[in-house]
């Protein structure tokens, strides 16, 4: 596992992860073979990494997310959630939590979710007397659910790296994502009941049932699109790539229905999709090179043999892996975490007999943790950037700590009861 050291050293120095993976991977290939053999072999490795039909679902889901974002559904989501949940203790924060989670699923971006709802909801919550730490923590944490709630790009990347069925992974993420969102909402409710100074009880406006249902009309197109994509995957109507294409076409239709379609908007969306897709494909490609070096050198086999030779209980091995992700999450972004860690941890997981779908959900959960924990904590810094002087970075991380506690409870439940994750995928057709 020697090559992990220069890789992590390069990342710590600030070298882009894709370039670090490519450089270290090539040097490792030269060391394993020779210069001439390595330059010849690298062509086949890089071509093999990109010559995959499954990869086509990456730009499709990114395009779906970008179009959904441009459709501007965030205001309608917040309004609908607030009308239905606003009269509960802590209702404004609970509504923000669920609206942010749903928007994250639609956009596929944790940063976009945190940014949008910091603009929409944070000023209102502070004005109503909500504790600003809890308010910011709720937004940053709920935005992170874009990692889990399908269609998740991170889930797609996990499936590509581990050769697991992407459709089953996407379906598997639904229940854990919903559980986490409900755990956050329940946590806010209990804080509101127990600590009214943090979450004041407000005399929210009485909203009739007719007004509540009217508020849902703005989110019905996106809701239908989500159900179509996920239902089609679950029922085996189409593959993950086809689901992405159908989802993109549906999101484009929603954009048109909401009167937000222009040629410039569409062009900008395609450009942004291309940039994001190329960035991901580059890091996946060089990650494949790095993985090849590790496997061909025998480093992976030696590492797996070392772990299994310790005769540790599988649950202890799992806890070590979780601790690893906590540490790596303090240094790199979620995509990089997957690329760097999976070549080493996945063979260990297989040796321990872990279900790969269930294990994938645990890994994605740790990616959620990574985007809200210091010092990287992208969602926390996004909230800070949008909120400005309204609160400090320390106050944001302080608010996030409560939601990390709730996340730990959900993770414990998932580890203790694997069928929560595996039941729905088991019903799907292979």
Q: Could you describe the 3D structure shown?
A:
The chain contains 23 helices and no strands. With 430 residues, it is an all-alpha fold. The protein has two domains: 83 residues; 340 residues, no CATH class. Helix 9 packs across helix 21 and helix 21 packs antiparallel against helix 22. The radius of gyration is 22 Å and the shape is globular.
Helix content: over 70%
Task: Please outline the major beta sheet.
Answer: none
Mean pLDDT: 87
The SSE order reads HHHHHHHHHHHHHHHHHHHHHHH
Number of helices: 23
Instruction: Sum up the overall morphology in one term.
Output: globular
- Secondary structure category: mainly alpha
The end-to-end span amounts to 35 Å
Low-pLDDT sequence parts? none
Number of strands: 0
Estimated share of beta-strand residues:
under 5%
Radius of gyration: 22 Å
What is the total domain count?
A: 2
Defining traits:
430 residues, mainly alpha, 2 domains, 77% helix
How are the elements arranged and paired?
Layout (H helix, E strand, L loop, with lengths): L3 H9 L4 H16 L2 H16 L6 H14 L3 H12 L5 H17 L2 H11 L1 H6 L4 H12 L9 H10 L3 H7 L1 H21 L14 H8 L3 H16 L4 H18 L5 H34 L2 H11 L4 H16 L4 H18 L4 H15 L7 H10 L5 H24 L2 H8 L4
Describe the structure concisely.
This protein has 430 residues and is an all-alpha fold.
């Amino acid at each position: 596992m020697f090559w992990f050291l220069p890789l992590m050293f390069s990342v710590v120095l600030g070298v882009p992860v894709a370039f670090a993976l490519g450089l270290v991977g090539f040097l490792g290939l030269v060391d394993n073979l020779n210069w001439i053999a390595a330059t010849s072999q690298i062509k086949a490795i890089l071509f093999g990494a990109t010559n995959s039909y499954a990869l086509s679902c990456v730009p499709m889901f990114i395009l779906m997310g970008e179009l959904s974002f441009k459709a501007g559904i965030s205001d309608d989501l917040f309004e609908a959630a607030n009308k239905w949940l606003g009269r509960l203790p802590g209702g404004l924060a609970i509504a923000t939590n669920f609206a942010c989670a749903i928007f994250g699923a639609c956009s596929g971006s944790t940063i976009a979710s945190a940014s949008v709802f910091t603009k929409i909801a944070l000023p209102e919550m502070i004005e109503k007397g909500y504790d600003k730490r809890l308010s910011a923590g709720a937004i940053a944490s709920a935005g992170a659910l874009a990692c889990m709630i399908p269609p998740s790009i991170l889930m797609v990347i996990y499936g590509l790296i581990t050769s697991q069925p992407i459709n089953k992974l996407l379906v598997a993420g639904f229940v854990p994502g919903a559980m986490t969102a409900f755990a956050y909402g329940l946590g806010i409710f209990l804080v509101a009941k127990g600590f009214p100074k943090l979450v004041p009880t407000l005399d929210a406006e009485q909203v009739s049932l007719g007004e509540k249902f009217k508020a849902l009309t703005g989110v019905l197109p996106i809701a239908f699109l989500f159900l179509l994509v996920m239902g089609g995957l679950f029922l085996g109507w189409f593959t993950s790539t086809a689901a992405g294409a159908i989802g993109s076409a549906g999101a484009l239709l929603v954009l048109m229905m909401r009167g937000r379609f222009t040629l410039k908007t569409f062009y900008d969306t395609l450009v942004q999709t291309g940039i994001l897709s190329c960035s991901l494909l580059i890091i996946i490609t060089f990650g494949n090179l790095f993985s090849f070096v590790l496997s061909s050198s025998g480093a992976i086999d030696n590492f797996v043999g070392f772990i299994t030779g310790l005769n540790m209980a599988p649950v202890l091995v799992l806890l070590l892996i979780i601790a690893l992700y906590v540490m790596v999450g303090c240094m790199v972004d979620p995509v990089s975490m997957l690329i760097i860690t999976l070549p080493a941890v996945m063979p260990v997981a297989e040796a321990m007999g872990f279900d790969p779908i269930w294990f994938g959900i645990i890994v994605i959960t740790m990616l959620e943790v990574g985007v809200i924990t210091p010092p990287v904590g992208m969602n926390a810094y996004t909230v800070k950037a949008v909120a400005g002087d309204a609160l400090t970075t320390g106050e944001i991380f302080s608010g996030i700590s409560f939601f990390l506690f709730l996340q730990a409870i959900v993770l414990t439940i998932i580890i203790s009861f694997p069928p929560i994750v595996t039941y729905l995928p088991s019903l799907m057709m292979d």
